[in-house]
């Protein structure tokens, strides 16, 4: 698999996960927190973070082995951090981490 495809996967997985969490939030709005839709959202967020972490580790090891291409390392780490955005929004929407 080429490096470009790996970067596309790294950046598209969190975007699709975020869209899925927003869609599930719209469908589950007003329902109980025991709804299976919320469990589906958790599964979606966790699996997307695992996939983005796996791809980021592959890219980081590839760029580190090629003499330390720092821009590739930076964009790989940034893509991995971008994978944490759906987790944050899941916690805000479904677990109310910032509510008093």
UniProtKB/TrEMBL annotation:
Look up the domain of life of the source.
Bacteria
Transmembrane stretches, by residue range? 7-28, 40-60, 72-93
Keywords (alphabetical) are:
Membrane, Transmembrane, Transmembrane helix
Protein name according to UniProt: Uncharacterized protein
- Organism field: Marinomonas primoryensis
Taxonomic placement: Bacteria, Pseudomonadati, Pseudomonadota, Gammaproteobacteria, Oceanospirillales
């Amino acid at each position: 698999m080429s490096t470009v495809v790996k970067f596309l996967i790294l950046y598209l997985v969190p975007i699709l996960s975020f869209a899925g969490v927003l869609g599930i939030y719209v469908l589950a709005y007003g329902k109980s927190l025991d709804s299976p839709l919320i469990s589906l959202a958790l599964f979606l967020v966790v699996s997307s973070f695992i996939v983005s972490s796996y791809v980021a580790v592959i890219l980081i090891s590839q760029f580190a082995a090629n003499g330390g291409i720092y821009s590739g390392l930076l964009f790989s780490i940034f893509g991995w951090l971008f994978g944490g955005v759906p987790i944050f929004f899941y916690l805000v929407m479904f677990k109310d981490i910032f509510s008093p």
